[in-house]
């Protein structure tokens, strides 16, 4: 692998070298993988945007509830999944595991959209009941009680979060790493992200159409659930999720039959290697991971992003609820976030792909944490101003007048788009490249633990920090009031994330050099 910028592959020339460095014979493998990523991200975006709308705007709830769900819901769910996955990995083929996991998620979301969601008022505690619970319980339970009261929404949130780690971090990337060489990954991986972000753009259209159905049901007085049209809104979203899930399984099946059997695209010896059973127990799997300093640094990188980004996003969502209290309006802003992130990612992916090919792994891996560090520092400076002046204080920008809270929402939106865009276009590809030179044992179970449990552990660690502060101060403590404490913590973790990149870079170069992977 190149260690200096400017040294690139000589396979292509001119604009083709910059914009589309894919050989014609590779399209048979590249295109379906890109489409699979697109449908997975399409579903994840729909799930992500709707889960926040459901939980944050539920009776008696708020963005503060999300930290408790990540800690006491998502983390145990990820650990449980990891235990089940490690067990079935020794009992089932990778194909059966893939189909089973995708089908499990699809069944749940279908049940929620057409059964649980319409019954929300009957299954949940009302606001008066929640307030009576709060009056008789310790102040630290103020926000967790809302998560319990709206338990079906909490369950939806947990499953949506797990889809991101399982479908993207585990199923897709493990399949991609098993079928891609390091030299191919330099050209393929960034473009997978670019094609995948078409899913983000498409999801914004689905959210817009679903909001029309919700608005019509609300106006006509035919809405189920809480009567605001969101049940009908959600049904459209769930139908789109189910259709995309079928496409994911179809593409995977097609590749098994037409790509993995083609020696020109895939080394048959790797198929045999991939299907070997790794007869390690769950405990032995984790011992193997924690003994590997290489995986440890990868875990630190994953923790860095998954601690920092959700905390910043939670604070931003608390301001978003103040600016847009209606569930349909809130979802519209989330749709704008997804569309903007997708568009920005597609633009920077072209730049990112050339950075991956022309510069060192370290240079590409550092861009995301540095971008996050700078954008978050600006966001917290504005939050501090908001805390001092109040959310509804007018702000004259010269060309328009707005409020402090609206300005905070806009700046936070930009921070989200910039951080996630560089994450999808550079952080994810560089992280996945780092798995490729590992031995099969570490590549399979090590990647599963880092991506699923490590990703969830990071978000839960951030949630634990926030939950601890909310518990300490008690009552209806807002995220805005905690920003002077959270800001320095987040920026410090981002700095440690940068140090982890430097450490892993040395080991990655050494490993690829010794194994000869870089020359494949």
Quick tags:
two-stranded antiparallel ribbon, Growth Hormone, Chain: A, 520 residues, 79% helix, 18 helices, mainly alpha, disordered N terminus
Largest sheet: 2 strands, antiparallel
Order of helices and strands: HHHHHHHHHHHHHHHEEHHH
In terms of structural class, how would the helical and strand content be classed? mainly alpha
CATH architecture: Up-down Bundle
- Mean pLDDT figure: 80
Strand content: under 5%
Summarize the structure.
With 520 residues, this protein is an all-alpha fold. It has helices at 14-19, 27-56, 64-88, 94-116, 120-123, 127-136, 144-149, 151-179, 182-220, 230-258, 268-275, 282-290, 293-323, 327-358, 361-389, 404-435, 440-473, 479-515; strands at residues 394-396, 401-403.
Task: Explain the overall architecture.
The protein has a single domain (27-263, 276-519), classed as MFS general substrate transporter like domains (Growth Hormone, Chain: A, Up-down Bundle), CATH 1.20.1250.20. It has helices at residues 14-19, 27-56, 64-88, 94-116, 120-123, 127-136, 144-149, 151-179, 182-220, 230-258, 268-275, 282-290, 293-323, 327-358, 361-389, 404-435, 440-473, 479-515; strands at residues 394-396, 401-403. Strands 1-2 form a two-stranded antiparallel sheet. It is globular. It has 520 residues and is mainly α. Helices cover 79% and strands 1% of the residues. The model is unreliable at 1-10 and 270-282 (pLDDT under 50).
């Amino acid at each position: 692998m190149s260690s200096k910028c400017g040294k690139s592959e000589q396979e292509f020339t001119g604009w083709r070298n910059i914009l589309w460095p894919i050989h014609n014979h590779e399209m048979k493998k590249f295109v379906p993988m890109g489409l699979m990523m697109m449908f997975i991200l399409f579903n994840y975006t729909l799930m992500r945007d709707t889960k926040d709308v459901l939980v944050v705007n539920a009776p008696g709830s708020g963005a503060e509830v999300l930290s408790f769900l990540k800690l006491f819901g998502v983390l145990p769910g990820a650990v449980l999944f990891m235990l089940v996955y490690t067990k079935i990995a020794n009992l089932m083929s990778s194909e059966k595991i893939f189909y089973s996991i995708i089908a499990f998620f699809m069944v749940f979301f279908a049940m929620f959209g057409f059964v649980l969601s319409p019954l929300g008022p009957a299954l949940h505690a009302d606001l008066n009941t929640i307030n009576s619970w709060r009056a008789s319980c310790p102040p630290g339970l103020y926000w967790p009680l809302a998560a319990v009261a709206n338990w079906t929404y909490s369950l939806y949130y947990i499953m949506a979060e797990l889809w991101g780690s399982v479908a993207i971090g585990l199923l897709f990337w493990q399949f991609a790493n098993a079928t891609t060489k390091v030299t191919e990954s330099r050209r393929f991986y960034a473009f997978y992200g670019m094609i995948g972000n078409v899913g983000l753009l498409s999801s914004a259209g689905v959210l817009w159409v679903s909001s029309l159905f919700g608005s019509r049901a609300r106006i006509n007085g035919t809405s189920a659930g809480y009567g605001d049209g969101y049940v009908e809104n959600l049904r459209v979203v769930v139908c789109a999720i189910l259709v995309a899930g079928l496409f994911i399984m179809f593409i995977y099946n097609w590749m098994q039959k037409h790509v993995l059997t083609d020696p020109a695209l895939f080394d048959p010896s790797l198929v045999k290697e991939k299907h070997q059973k790794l007869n390690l127990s769950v405990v032995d799997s984790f011992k193997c991971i924690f003994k590997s300093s290489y995986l440890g640094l990868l875990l630190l990188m994953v923790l860095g992003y998954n601690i920092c980004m959700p905390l910043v996003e939670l604070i931003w969502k608390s301001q978003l609820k103040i600016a847009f209290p209606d569930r349909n309006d809130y979802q519209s802003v989330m749709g704008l976030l997804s569309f903007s992130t997708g568009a920005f990612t597609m633009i920077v992916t072209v730049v990112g792909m050339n950075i991956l090919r022309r510069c060192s792994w370290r240079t590409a891996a550092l861009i995301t944490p540095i971008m996050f560090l700078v954008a978050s520092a600006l966001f917290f400076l504005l939050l501090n101003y908001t805390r001092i002046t109040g959310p509804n204080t007018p702000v004259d920008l010269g060309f328009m007048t707005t409020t402090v809270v609206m300005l905070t929402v806009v700046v936070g939106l930009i921070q989200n788009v910039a951080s996630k865009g560089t994450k999808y276009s550079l952080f994810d590809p560089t992280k996945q490249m780092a798995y490729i030179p590992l031995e099969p044992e570490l590549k399979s179970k090590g990647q599963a633990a880092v991506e699923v449990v490590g990703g969830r552990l990071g978000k839960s660690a951030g949630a634990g920090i926030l939950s601890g502060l909310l518990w300490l101060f008690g009552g209806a403590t807002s995220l805005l009031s905690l920003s002077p404490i959270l800001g320095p913590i987040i920026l410090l973790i981002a700095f440690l994330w940068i140090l982890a990149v430097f450490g892993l870079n040395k080991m990655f170069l050494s490993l690829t050099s010794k194994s000869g992977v870089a020359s494949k």
